[in-house]
Design brief:
four-stranded antiparallel beta sheet, Nucleotidyltransferase, domain 5, 24% strand, alpha+beta
Length: 331
């Protein structure tokens, strides 16, 4: 082998060593700050999470690594978040799911999604539903807690949100839930739900339906469901009543949105028309016990209406009763 060939071999060896990943001897490495007491405390925190799993069953309200790290700090341990996260990852053997961050102008886009949450209400485990509306431009998140995912709930969440903001976004983005898509034609064509079309015509927003199994196309709201579920209900999931849970969610959202740009975004939204009327009309007859039946439920009315017909307006969370065009009571 001549000198030139020797030089080539030496050069290749040098290049391979430079390009090769670094090698470390980790056999004797020890964590300088991660102690046995810390490990035991972390096990206790994760054990409380398992207890929550036992009570709630299948749910998505696990504390995040950041939340657990804050608990560790409050206990007085001196440790980095990355170290705690590594140990949590090892103990949970869990991989993170990521979403592609997308940029939009204020007022352009509002994303919609449903998410489940399991709560203990008055001692009983209940599966409730979060209707979540999220603006990627202002990083604003809003949610309301419902007892089902029916059409009335879907419509009600829109009306509540637009009444709250006082303005309308240019585009609403949905996935292929049944309240959005009535049926599929072929591989890509979709027939939109007529009730949603009426709502969009009334409020004046465009409907954008994502492709099937493409959650990243509305990644902000997909992330928002997880953020709200974890930041609101991972710490507290027991309530004396459904109403208390709703109030707790409302107050937590106010705190979460303090850093959003919703005040600036509201200024560029199209003015909202009066709230869309969602009440279902019926005219039941008052029975001899002063009750009217509405959708298999009985509601009391004053005695003087026995034997007479009344007008009932039924909403998601309230029933209003009228007699001779005069308001009588609500339940």
């Amino acid at each position: 082998m001549n000198q030139l060939e020797n030089d080539d071999c030496d050069l290749r060896e040098i290049q391979e060593k430079i390009a090769a990943p670094p090698k470390y001897d980790a056999s004797r490495r020890q964590y300088r700050k991660y102690t046995e007491a810390m490990d035991q405390f972390l096990d206790n925190v994760l054990a409380s999470e398992k207890k929550k799993d036992t009570i709630l069953g299948t749910h998505k309200q696990k504390r995040t690594n950041e939340q657990i790290y804050q608990i560790v700090l409050k206990e007085g341990f001196d440790i980095s978040q990355s170290t705690i996260s590594n140990h949590i990852r090892i103990k949970r053997d869990k991989h993170k799911e990521c979403f592609i961050r997308q940029q939009y102008d204020l007022g352009d886009r509002l994303e919609y999604d449903f998410g489940e949450v399991k709560l203990v209400i008055d001692g009983n485990v209940q599966t409730l539903h979060l209707a979540v509306l999220s603006s990627p431009a202002s990083d604003f998140r809003w949610a309301y807690l419902y007892k089902n995912q029916k059409k009335d709930v879907f419509m009600d969440s829109h009306v509540r949100f637009f009444r709250m903001t006082g303005g309308i976004y240019k585009e609403m983005v949905y996935d292929n839930m049944r309240n959005v898509v009535s049926k599929f034609i072929g591989r890509s064509a979709k027939v939109l739900n007529p009730d949603l079309l009426i709502l969009s015509n009334y409020y004046g927003f465009r409907i954008n339906v994502t492709n099937c199994f493409k959650g990243n196309e509305k990644g902000h709201v997909e992330g928002s469901v997880k953020i709200i579920r974890n930041q609101v209900f991972a710490e507290k999931y027991e309530f004396s009543s459904y109403e208390q849970a709703c109030l707790y969610l409302e107050n937590r959202l106010i705190k979460m949105n303090e850093k959003s740009s919703i005040k600036d975004e509201v200024k560029v939204l199209q003015p909202a028309p009066p709230p869309f009327e969602l009440g279902k009309l019926s005219e039941p007859k008052v029975d001899t016990y002063s009750f009217v039946q509405v959708e298999n439920r009985l509601y009391s009315v004053p005695d003087y209406l026995v034997g007479k017909k009344v007008t009932v307006k039924s909403y998601v969370d309230v029933v209003k009763i009228y007699a001779n065009a005069h308001f009588v009571c609500e339940h």
